[in-house]
Amino acid sequence: MLSTEDNELITRIGPGTLMGNLMRQYWLPALLSSELPGPDSDPVRILLLGEKLIAFRDTTGKVGLVQNHCPHRGASLFFGRNEEAGLRCVYHGWKFDVTGQCVDMPNEPAESNFKTKVKAVAYPTNERGGVIWAYMGPRSTPPSLPDFEANVLEGSTARGMQRDCNWLQALEGDIDTCHTAILHSGAITPEEVPDFAFAHFMVKNRAPHYAVVDHAVGSTYAAYCDAQPGEEFWRLGQYYMPIFTSPAPGLLGWERRVTMWVPMDDTHVMSYNLSAPRVEPGQTAPTPRLQFAMLPNTTDWYGRFRTPNQPENDYLIDRDVQRANKGPNGFTGISGVGPQDAAMQGSASMGWIYDRTGEHLGTSDAMIIRVRRRLLASARDLAEKGTVPPGVDNPEGYRLRSGGVFLKKGEDWVQATSELQKAYVDHEGLDLRQNANGYARALGRSQATSVRQS
């Protein structure tokens, strides 16, 4: 368990906090490109690391991310006019470009040069793969963006989803692989899943063994259990400093995805799920991604990317479905993996900021422990020694994949999976039938034979 001091340090991300200062060393996703659909489109309110900011796309297509309050008299720039390559405050007409520089003061004399002396707080932005990134750190020249293939490859998609809890509660759910076999598939029996599929062995062995190793920019975790005679089923997931994950479900070597757990403030987190296209054998186009029902975005600070499942409606839990205990939603009575996670981690369950001083961690929490230690050590090393955190100057360290694989019993898992973990590689000979990413789809194969590829 964490001490009271460490629990406070690791969860708080506002300006001036140790964890907030750590996160400001990195590029962070601020919003999706689709939220600023074109030049001079409507400004958007953005909460990022506890700061209220206004995002806008100017007439030339450049993205600005500036402070909420106009430096003149404090009116919100959200109400500003986005026009002629700048955002103009409608209170007194002061206008700011994407760098925050004031470029016009219509209420000052024509001969005044006061506008050259006024600059709003503005953060550099970088747009790639459908995501608008922001750098809030101290460097005059920001580092390179982390090299996630799901943010680089053509055709990649990105979607957002907000949760009502501290950022660490949500992120830890993504690196807590043991809950997958219970929360998301507790009602599924091994007999319902073909024995060539990963899901068969995951639900057959709900208490696997665990292994954790560090890599250059984070840590890799693995859960493993017996599979067919002479084989073991391994599922690997990735954590990358400071807020990025690639969870374990799916096929190792095939999955091209990353989830970004961006702290809005101490009690709200925005997740961005990025996925690169995958064309299955026999297809000419990528498999369409599942679409989730979302509430219409509103313009308030917490109005973006909210699902219909919310604390006030108990995440739409269906007790009759729960009592029946059948299918992928039967164990919880809550429909969908994301809403199930949100219900467990959110304000109606763990609370806004969970007090970890009362935890009782077991062997299945090895990855949780490792990540907390890396975060705390990196934050302290930055504060006390000025040590650059892992990954800031190592964008290629983010080129890793996650997923499941069958290995020979007793095989060195790190060495055996090293090639399959590499991104930007088309791995040959993968058996896509093994893919356990989606238990409803696996259950739909009940008529499939159990003959596995050699």
Give your account of this protein's structure.
The chain is an alpha+beta fold and 454 residues long. 42% of the residues are buried. Helices cover 16% and strands 22% of the residues. It has helices at 4-11, 18-23, 167-174, 198-204, 319-324, 337-345, 366-385, 413-417, 439-443, and strands at 27-32, 44-48, 51-57, 63-67, 81-83, 86-88, 95-96, 102-104, 125-128, 131-135, 157-163, 209-215, 218-226, 231-240, 244-246, 257-265, 268-275, 403-408. The model is unreliable at 436-454 (pLDDT under 50). The strands form four sheets. Strands 11, 12, 13, 14, 15, 16, 17 and 18 form an eight-stranded antiparallel beta sheet that branches. A four-stranded antiparallel beta sheet has the order 5-6-7-8, with no helix packed on it. A three-stranded antiparallel beta sheet has the order 1-10-9, with no helix packed on it. It has nine helices and 18 strands. The longest helix has 20 residues, at 366-385. It has two domains: 27-135, Rieske [2Fe-2S] iron-sulphur domain (Rieske Iron-sulfur Protein), CATH 2.102.10; 149-443, no CATH class.
Helix and strand pattern: HHEEEEEEEEEEEHHEEEEEEHHHEHH
The helical percent reads 10-25%
Structural domain tally: 2
Mean pLDDT: 92
Query: In one word, what is the shape?
Result: elongated
> What amount of the residues lies in strands?
15-25%
Q: What is the count of β-strands?
A: 18
Distance between the termini: 45 Å
Structural class: alpha+beta
**Radius of gyration, Cα only, in angstroms?**
23 Å
Q: Report the uncertain regions.
A: 436-454
- Major sheet details: 8 strands, antiparallel
Continuous helix count: 9
